[in-house]
Design goal:
The structure is a single chain. By secondary structure, this protein is of the alpha/beta class. Helix 4 packs parallel to helix 5. The protein is globular, with a radius of gyration of 18 Å. The structure holds zinc ion (2 copies).
Length: 272
């Protein structure tokens, strides 16, 4: 089995805990072949767009890149290792023009291997926190989130992967938090068809629950979607933690390959 993880946070993210060199050590121990460091670029934070109850600070790309380069150079000294350490970005989508421009500038400035497009905040509110849900029915809160995901797919910068569709459920206060394909079939179909049409990869994210949920992944497959990535989305070094479970599920649905991206080029890895 070829282990890989295409979504991982270091302590350069406001919520990450470990240095990149520590993540490399863990990945080597686990025999991981592809590891993407994908710290948060929440450009909205600089413009007051993502209102949250915690005063997050924005990332320092220069510092992150310097640390990444040092870890990569150290890894290259180790001739026994076949780990591909990849430089990524989790670009949180925002409707703000300023945030979009800053994202474009950053993407041009650094040699990313892979760009992940994600949605955390909807209409200026971080959905991780309860205040996003105040006075909203589940249908409304989840529906607005899926509309934001659909808009994010038309971001005017190039990206490779669509992250964690279903992130909204984590902070939701509802008794039944489940996000079901059947409850939002039209919205999901619009999203999944656009991902396929644009040739992007759908991330299977394991930060909280598996996202998107299985019924959505099955629909993606039925519509012809074949590009999937595994994203552990670990913040404390739990690299590839649910890789075997997710691989078994994907195989069961019918998927044959994972996509990984190195130097923005897709490499296919057979799902075993
Ligand atoms: Zn995320
Ligand atoms: Zn993440």
């Amino acid at each position: 089995m070829t282990y890989l993880d295409m979504h991982c946070h270091s302590k350069n993210s406001h919520d990450g805990k470990l240095a990149i060199s520590e993540l490399v050590r863990i990945a080597k121990e686990k025999g991981v072949k592809y590891l993407l460091i994908s710290d948060h670029f929440d450009f909205d934070l600089d413009y007051g767009g993502a209102r949250s109850v915690v005063p997050y600070s924005s990332i320092k790309p220069e510092k992150l890149y310097a640390e990444f380069k040092a870890a990569k150079a150290e890894l290259e000294e180790d001739k026994k290792s076949d780990l591909h350490l990849l430089f990524g970005i989790e670009a949180a989508y925002s409707d703000s023009e300023k945030a979009i421009k800053k994202c474009q500038e950053t993407l041009e400035k650094y040699p990313f291997d892979c760009v992940i497009n994600s949605v955390h905040s909807v209409n200026g509110q971080e959905t991780y926190f309860r205040n996003y849900f105040f006075f909203k029915s589940k249908q409304r809160a989840y529906g607005d989130y899926l509309d934001a995901v659909l808009r994010s797919l038309d971001a005017p910068y190039d990206y490779d992967v669509v992250a964690h569709i279903g992130y909204i459920t984590h902070g939701a206060p509802y008794k039944d938090k489940t996000l079901r394909y059947a409850d939002f079939a039209d919205k999901f179909d619009a999203i999944l068809k656009k991902i396929i049409e644009k040739g992007k990869a759908l991330e299977i994210n394991c930060h909280h629950d598996v996202n998107p949920p299985r019924d959505v992944i099955e629909r993606y497959f039925a519509l012809g979607g074949r590009k999937v990535t595994y994203g552990g989305d670990s913040h404390r070094g739990e690299i590839a933690a649910r890789f075997e479970e997710v691989s078994a599920m994907l195989k069961d649905i019918g998927f044959e390959y994972y996509s990984v991206f190195e130097n923005r080029k897709e490499i296919l890895i057979r799902i075993e």
